[in-house]
Amino acid sequence: MMHIDSRERNFIIGTTILLLIFGAAVLVSSFAFGFQVPAPVERIDPKVVATPGQSPWGDPVAERLRELAPNKYEVYILAQAWAFQPNQIRVPVGSTVTFYLTSKDVQHGFRLDGTNINMMVLPGEVSRLTATFDEPGEYNFICHEYCGVGHHTMYGQLIVEP
């Protein structure tokens, strides 16, 4: 039988307890706070993503917000240097919105203030997250991944109307 120094044993026990606490915190927060992990839902050719007829991101900007059912929407946002298209979205209060994002040039980020929507937007990958808006107001979204000299101009707004 091998002898383990008491300090080393206590360190191993303490480390194991911390790992269990951190694991429990991740599980609790994912269910209690509705954390969503954005995963690519499909792949798309970034060279033709904005071409009309090739994808929803090729549709006119005004047609990228689609009402699927009462208070259920999907929006297709294209990130490109240095803008989101569309950069202003309007939905009524109580709406559930599914965001589909992709990029046609470089890596971007998308964070929607006041929600748990926060994802990386990569060329060739479609990211999807959903949020429900029960409070009227203005929710700003920004690019949080540096994408070049015009990065600071890359923002938009979701307006939830009463």
Helicity level: 10-25%
Residue windows where pLDDT falls under 50 for at least 5 positions: none
Beta-strand residue fraction: 35-45%
CATH homologous superfamily title of the largest domain = Cupredoxins -  blue copper proteins
Which second-level CATH architecture of the largest domain applies? Answer: Sandwich
Structural class, please? alpha+beta
- How many strands, which pairing sense, and closed or not: the largest β-sheet? 6 strands, mixed
CATH topology of the largest domain: Immunoglobulin-like
Q: How would you sum up the global shape?
A: elongated
Output the radius of gyration: 21 Å
Distance between the termini: 71 Å
Give, in order, the helices and strands. Answer: HEEEEEEEEEEE
| Number of extended strands | 11
How would you briefly describe this protein structure?
The chain folds into two domains: 1-35; 40-161, Immunoglobulin-like (Sandwich), CATH 2.60.40.420. It is 17% helix and 41% strand.
List the defining traits of the structure above.
alpha+beta; 162 residues; elongated; five-stranded mixed sheet; 1 helix; Immunoglobulin-like; 2 domains; six-stranded mixed sheet
Description:
The protein is of the alpha+beta class. It folds into 2 domains: 1-35; 40-161, Immunoglobulin-like (Sandwich). Helix content is 17%, strand content 41%. The protein has one helix at 6-32, and strands at 40-43, 65-69, 72-80, 83-85, 88-92, 95-103, 108-112, 118-121, 125-133, 137-142, 155-161. The strands form 2 sheets. Strands 1, 2, 3, 4, 6 and 9 form a 6-stranded mixed sheet that branches. The longest helix is centred in the first third of the chain and has 27 residues, at 6-32. The mean pLDDT is 91.
